[in-house]
Write a structure and sequence with these properties.
290 residues; Rossmann fold; 7-stranded mixed beta sheet; 2 domains; two-stranded antiparallel ribbon; alpha/beta; 42% helix; single chain
Amino acid sequence: MNVSVRQAVLWGVRVLGQHGCDSPRLDAELLLAHAMGLTRARLLAQFDRELSPAELARYRQLIERRRAHEPVAYIVGHQEFYGLDFYVDRRVLIPRPETELLVERAIKLAGEVGDRGYGLYPLTLADVGTGSGAIAVSLAVHLPQATIYALDSSAEALEVAARNVRRHGIEGRVHLLRGDLLSPLPEPVDLIVANLPYVSEAELAELPPQIRRYEPLSALDGGPDGLRHIRRLLAQAGGYLRPQGAILLEIGATQGAEMIELARRYFPMASIEVVKDYAGLDRVVIVRTR
């Protein structure tokens, strides 16, 4: 039986929809494009094309994996973030669109901090808990004069980050360091940027299956109130910041007020701002030292 692209997509949509996938149409198109070695745009331009038996077999296998709630990014092996494409696998969290706000604010603030340096020293940033390296690589691409340290306690995560550093040709400017939070840093930095685990124990149990079953829970678990790692980072940060440096942290949607209080405890003279995302939820806290 001959099967066209259109028929294959409709079958995938039906199967995924029956198994509770949030975006069955998009998922089916992405998986079919991957099975056929096409971009999604090229796939959509060939809806009447017939699949070869090998393409159809590959597609069925991919749909089976997605039907079991495995994330599409892990199935196809990559995820777009901040306009760049990143390799991902189950050793790291999948980069999220909401984290782009953290990168956006870091780039903006880096420009202000760099201007204060009058070119006397290179702008230096630390991405703490780098995971896939998406934040560090995005910063390096958009801040070509900056030096970036990408830190993680997981050797496996750093292997993925190294692959993405090579993928974007920035080996000389992103330095991968393994260790606990800020401890591997060889020098003070202008900006500390971190998307640390901030999911509370109660929230962890309620995560959807595609996260709970497949993504590394150690990269999500923030302890009883979600702030265990952030507290430790703030306690360390003062010793690793240059004068008038700043800390930018991604936080949970309801953690803004508590984060202001927590940051004030460690940086009583700092300017502290909570930035809401496009859905109006707390997303980034910025601590600017004086």
